[in-house]
Write a structure and sequence with these properties.
Blueprint (H helix, E strand, L loop, with lengths): L7 E6 L8 H23 L10 E3 L7 H13 L2 E8 L5 H4 L8 E5 L7 H14 L5 E3 L14 H20 L3 E5 L13 H8 L2 E5 L2 H8 L5 H14 L15 H23 L2 H5 L3 H5 L3 E6 L13 H8 L2 E2 L2 E2 L5 E3 L3 H14 L4 E9 L1 H8 L11 E5 L12 E3 L2 E3 L8 H9 L2 E4 L10 E4 L7 E10 L3 E11 L4 H8 L8 E6 L10 H7 L4 E6 L3 H11 L3 E3 L21 H12 L5
Parallel strand pairs: 1-2, 1-3, 3-4, 4-5, 6-7, 6-8, 8-11, 19-22
Antiparallel strand pairs: 9-10, 12-13, 12-21, 13-20, 14-15, 16-17, 18-19, 18-21, 19-20
Helix pairs in contact: 1-5, 5-18, 8-9, 9-12
Length: about 600
């Protein structure tokens, strides 16, 4: 996406419309309130390309329905996708409220005593609830003096949290999910449900058969100069590991070299299928040059492709990473095995954090007793209650090595903060093994690394349930380090050619988070998307905007922020209220 296509945040300065002394006394302070929020957003929020988020402030304060309509037209003409109303005073609620059906919306009612901004907030939130247009309510805990331009910390947190989730909603609208191939090994998540994408995310669905990859390889429908550059970079930076396949099943050196060329070409082709490539038009392929406007894609791979051609681990891993032969750049979102539901889970995390996402199997729960029996080591520290082995064939982002750093600690971070030395470290700690030919008869290469321990991470997964619809589950926790001999013993019981993340969810002692085993037992599918940081509260806010209930999470109650109308569905059992609200309002895009 180019910057000109990014949605903007619209800020509506709402005012008491009574002229003759009241409105005039509030014009400057109301407009300044809007400007201060715009400055907050442009300072702290970014688009996926790293540029500051752009805001559009209403041309005038909004004191009545005429000015509300004028502002709506202004926002429509300026690409607004998220709406925030701000006011320090009482205003005429239903005359001034935002009525757009798709824009995520919130109201900041200033907590002051000179003018009743809180009264407007309450009245207008009631109007939003009555009209079926849920909005977030933002109200500072402490009273401020009228004209105080400081934005309190608690208000800042809610303003930013709303805007991040709102921008994620707006960025998805009108984009595509591209399925390269169809169903992988009977995985339900790869049975792409276009109704879900259209009604809940506002996204289109695009499909191409995997034969299109072969066509582009054979007819050289890729940038041949870039291919040579990419192949040279791969040979220099992607170290090949030992071949652990039985000798009789190993490919020859010439075949392995050919596989390297094929997987590099696949990487170029997957990217071009998603976003297009102007270089193809110069070669006479104008249609192919346009791409499929895809914000997210998935590759079927197994088995029809991988039974006779190199697997997709290399292209998936490189695209999901924040760097390649062209340098440091934003990661692409590419789902292994065309698991669209896990792909969307990755997309949620990416749009909220702008960091690369780890795609993994939620493969094995290792209890302390089982670990001691197999390795002789008794887990301790964070791992004392056991841990979950996150591992899949080598398609996880290389950012997941944990070799990016901040203040000496392992992190995953937006591409614009990554240094060249960190990229080299990620590559140096990744080995590309010839693919396990029991799984991948056509060969290829799988990445192998071990995620460094000590990183706060959040795993999430979106599932579709017949009769209910989509539900989201969230588990905040930490990556952990294991002693080398313990890691090797446990890892090699699965596959030593794949990347591993050892994960311990944060426990609450009750429900699905009673212990680590119960988290594993309640996980709704075989895959999970892992994002850096404890961002479960951000995911809950986004899910509410999309009307997707959260069926499992370990986020503290005080961190949860949903539209004000959710309280009308019950306040003593928030999870049940979330289900009832999402069911009542239905998908965002009807």
């Amino acid at each position: 996406m180019s910057n000109t296509q990014y949605p903007r945040i619209g800020i509506r300065p709402v005012i008491d419309g009574r002229l003759g002394g009241v409105r005039e006394s509030l014009e400057a302070v109301t407009m300044q309130m809007a400007k201060n929020v715009a400055a907050l957003y442009t300072t702290h929020l970014r688009y996926p390309d790293g540029s500051p988020v752009q805001c559009v402030i209403g041309d005038t304060c909004i004191g009545g329905v005429k000015e509300a309509a004028d502002c709506a037209r202004q926002f429509e003409n300026n690409g607004v996708g998220v709406s925030l109303s701000v006011t320090p005073c009482w205003c005429y609620g239903m005359e001034t409220m935002d009525m757009h059906p798709y824009w995520p919306k919130a109201i900041w009612g200033f907590n002051g005593t000179e003018r009743p901004g809180a009264v407007y907030l309450a009245a207008t939130l009631a109007a939003h609830a009555q009209m079926g247009l849920p909005a977030f309510g933002i109200y500072g805990r402490d009273v401020q003096d009228l004209g105080d331009e400081a934005i309190p910390e608690d208000v800042t947190d809610k303003l930013l949290r709303f805007a991040r989730a709102g921008m994620a909603v707006a960025l998805m609208r009108g984009k595509s999910y591209l399925a390269i191939g169809t169903v992988s090994m009977g995985i339900a998540g790869s049975m792409v449900n276009s109704d879900f994408f259209q009604r809940y995310l506002g996204m289109r669905n695009e499909w191409v058969d995997t034969s299109e990859i072969l066509r582009r390889i054979e007819k050289k429908i890729y940038d041949e100069n870039e291919f040579e550059k990419a192949l040279a970079w791969t040979r220099s930076n992607c170290k090949e590991g030992s071949d652990f396949n039985p000798v009789e099943k190993q490919f020859s050196r010439a075949e392995k070299d050919d596989h390297w060329e094929t997987v590099v070409k696949m990487t170029l082709i997957f990217r071009d299928l998603m976003t297009g490539n102007a270089a193809l038009k110069a070669k006479g392929f104008g249609e192919e040059a346009m791409g499929h406007n895809a914000l997210l894609a998935g590759f079927q791979g197994q088995r029809q492709w991988t039974d006779f051609l190199p697997n997709g681990d290399f292209p998936e891993a490189i695209l999901n990473s924040s760097f390649d032969w062209n340098g440091i750049r934003a990661p692409y979102m590419m789902a292994t095995e065309n698991d669209a539901m896990n792909g969307v889970s990755m997309l949620f995390g990416y749009l909220l954090t702008h960091t690369a996402q780890i795609f993994a199997d939620v493969r094995t729960y290792w209890s302390p007793d089982a670990v001691q029996r197999v390795t002789g080591w008794q887990p301790d520290g964070t791992a004392a209650g056991g841990f979950i082995h996150l591992i899949n064939s080598g398609s996880a982002t290389l950012d997941g090595t944990g070799r990016l750093q901040q203040d000496g600690q392992p992190v995953m971070k937006p591409f614009w903060e990554i240094q060249e030395a960190e990229v080299k470290d990620c590559l140096a700690h990744t080995t590309w093994y010839p693919a396990n030919n029991g799984y991948f008869r056509g060969g290829g290469y799988s990445s192998q690394f071990v995620t460094r321990g000590g990183m706060p991470v959040t795993m999430c997964r979106l599932n579709l349930v017949k009769g209910l619809g989509p539900v989201l589950q969230i588990a905040e926790g930490h990556t952990v380090d294991l002693p080398d001999h313990v890691h090797r013993t446990l890892d090699e019981r699965t596959d030593r050619t794949w990347p591993t993340t050892w994960f311990v969810p944060r426990l609450t002692g009750q429900g699905a988070f009673r212990d680590v085993y119960t988290v594993m037992a309640n996980w709704g599918a075989n895959h999970g998307a892992i994002s850096y940081g404890h961002v479960g509260h951000e995911l809950i806010t986004l899910a509410a905007l999309l009307r997707i209930p959260v069926n499992m999470h370990n986020v503290e109650e005080q961190r949860i922020f949903r539209p004000a109308a959710w309280a009308s569905f019950g306040t003593t059992a928030a999870e049940g209220a979330d289900y009832r609200a999402c069911d009542t309002y239905g998908p965002l895009y009807k």
